[in-house]
Write a structure and sequence with these properties.
Layout: H1 9-25, E1 32-38, E2 47-54, E3 60-67, E4 71-79, H2 86-99, E5 104-107, E6 113-120, H3 126-151
Antiparallel strand pairs: 1-2, 2-3, 3-4, 4-6, 5-6
Helix pairs in contact: 1-3, 2-3
């Protein structure tokens, strides 16, 4: 078995370059905000970036990228922890999870619902990042209204109309 190469400061520089080249392609669009980068690794040796995106259903979608030992961990919070209809919501999300490509749904910190994936370091190209961002926007716009209506229905009111 061939293992992915270890991440290091050079991998962080290459990943940052990939993110900047991707952002330059979308500079004129209104859906990409800005990219923030933590220049120094955290206590686990991971480097971090965040990309703010503008969604249709959810106003701001934040995509977190963490350069780990052999992969880039990518996640975005779909919604906070559900307070209502948990069983129905989890069933809905499990069915949806079966349909997803590139990303999958997971329960994350503080029981929030996240879209997540792991990508080997050398596979995160501008093209793959573009596909990942597109999938994230699509899935959030598709799943967010129903999930929020089910899990936080007493406080959530859909703002967008189609």
């Amino acid at each position: 078995m061939t293992r992915a190469p270890l991440g290091d400061a050079d991998a962080a520089t290459r990943l940052d370059d990939t993110l900047q080249r991707w952002a330059a392609l979308w500079h004129a669009s209104s859906f990409v905000g800005h990219i923030e980068h933590q220049a120094l690794p955290d206590d686990k040796g991971h480097y971090h970036w965040l990309i703010r995106l503008k969604g249709d259903e959810k106003d701001v979608i934040t995509l977190w990228l963490s350069l780990r030992q052999r992969s880039v961990h990518v996640e975005t919070e779909l919604m906070p922890a559900p307070e209502e209809q948990r069983e129905e919501l989890y069933r809905y999300l499990l069915v949806k999870n079966h349909e997803l490509r590139e990303l999958h749904l997971a329960i994350g910190p503080e029981e929030g619902i996240y879209l997540v994936t792991q990508i080997p370091i050398q596979e995160l190209t501008v093209e793959r990042l573009d596909e990942l961002v597109g999938a994230t926007l699509t899935y959030v716009d598709e799943i967010y209204p129903t999930a929020m209506s089910m899990g936080l229905g007493s406080v959530y009111r859909r703002r967008k109309t189609h």
